[in-house]
Amino acid sequence: MKTAFITGACVNTGVAIVKKFAGEGYNVVFTGRNPETVHAKEQEYQKTFPIVEITGYSIDSLLNERTVNEKAVEEMFFSLDQKGVFIETLVLNAADQGLDIAFFKNPLTDFMRVINTNITWNYCLCDHAAKRMKENGGGNIIFINSNTAYRAIPNRIAYSASKGGQLGMMRAMALDLGKYNIRVNAVLPGMIKTDRWKKNPAFYANVPSRFTPLGDVAAGEDIARCSMVFCSPCKEYNGCGACCGWRKYDSVISVNPKQTNLNRPLLPHRSKESFAPTFL
């Protein structure tokens, strides 16, 4: 039975991704920051999906703004090795949202925290996972990126920069790891319904009509389905970015899944289905 590793899987989109993979018969390893929350979600997932194995790890991405918690990553993968668990699919969902980081306001360490969480820590996870994938004949790495890698929004400079850098890292990984049968792709969501909608209903009440033609935006389940697409055995899915943010009217973009030309301009495609990707 295959095993998927999903970061940031105690709330919102991460929960939907765990449920999608577990529902498809994958064993699941997931992470969160708070030990009590991770334990509670582990019990909840195990009760919901009794026929698969689900294991949670509590881990902080950084020791401080400047330093990735590499030792914790090493210990976590060593623990999985001792249990005989091979991570076939790595889904990098956890992120620092970098809210309200603006010029003339924040110290440099705030910017560094976002960059190190969203780029450096994810590289560290990929490095450890890819070593094991290489030894086992291949695997999948999926970044939950953001369309802010291309579309800047106010007071989110650190987040936009980190997602742009992360997308470049994804393309480079696809080239470097493809020869080991390791495919690396990214999902680029737009706005997603999360617990923020409940916390600030007055603001979000008018958001869909302002940002989407059909008056609705993506839910976590949409992102989870998109992630599952990249677990397809189709080897052309490498170095791709699938951008979904308009529910039931999603944009799908590709940097050309052929490894020989990963830097080709993005070509858009729109589908009326909830998610029916066509990579051009």
Tell me briefly what this model is:
The protein is 40% helix and 17% strand.
Question: Care to describe what's here?
Answer:
The chain has 280 residues and is of the alpha/beta class. 40% of the residues lie in helices and 17% in strands. It contains 9 helices and 11 strands. The chain has helices at 12-23, 35-48, 70-82, 108-135, 157-177, 196-199, 201-204, 207-211, 220-229; strands spanning 3-6, 27-32, 54-58, 62-64, 67-68, 89-92, 139-144, 182-187, 241-242, 250-254, 267-271. The strands form 3 sheets. A 7-stranded parallel sheet has the order 3-2-1-6-7-8-9, sandwiched between helices. Helix 1 packs across helix 9 and helix 4 runs parallel beside helix 5 (157-177). The longest helix is centred in the middle third of the chain and has 28 residues, at 108-135. The protein starts with a strand and ends in a 9-residue tail after the last strand. The model is unreliable at 246-280 (pLDDT under 50).
Query: Which percent bin holds the helix content?
Result: 25-40%
H-E order: EHEHEEEHEHEHEHHHHEEE
Q: What radius of gyration results from the CA coordinates? A: 18 Å
What is the number of beta strands?
A: 11
Shape field: globular
Overall pLDDT level: 83
**Hey, roughly how much beta strand do the residues contain?**
15-25%
Output the number of helix runs: 9
Distance between the termini: 32 Å
The helix/strand class is alpha/beta
Q: How many strands, which pairing sense, and closed or not: the largest β-sheet?
A: 7 strands, parallel
List segments where confidence is low: pLDDT < 50 over at least 5 consecutive residues: 246-280
Write out the strand line-up for the largest beta sheet, numbering strands in chain order. Answer: 3-2-1-6-7-8-9
